[in-house]
Write a structure and sequence with these properties.
By secondary structure, the protein is mostly helical. The protein has eight helices and no strands.
Length: 138
Amino acid sequence: MIASSENHKLEELEPALCAYQPKRFAELLHILVVQLPDRLPDARENSHYLGWLIYEHMLIMRQEEQQIIEDAWRKSIRDKNTEMYAGDILLPCVLRGHDLKEQLQFIEEQNNEIGYYLDYPPLLTKVDTQDLPSITES
């Protein structure tokens, strides 16, 4: 996982990379996302930073990266060896860009018995009153 000093270096370099080498910054994010499934089982203190970094940049993630994030999230909620909060950290990334019905399906799939989202659920898209009958039926 990214060490604390590396976190700090990346935070310092991010504005310059985005301003002068945005393609290189996107490549670095791609590398982090591709390595994500292998990093999660060992993630502890830096998993929050990595999850936040990914979440902050979801708008520039391509479909390939979004799929890797979703697959890593699914793996983390099924794998008992994965650090307990990995699924919680990736859930907001997975929810982003999906409609309400899909978001509810992801939350149901998460099925937390313990974790942050029991007391503080993630923000969802606004519920359109036209969607209420179909949502409450499922």
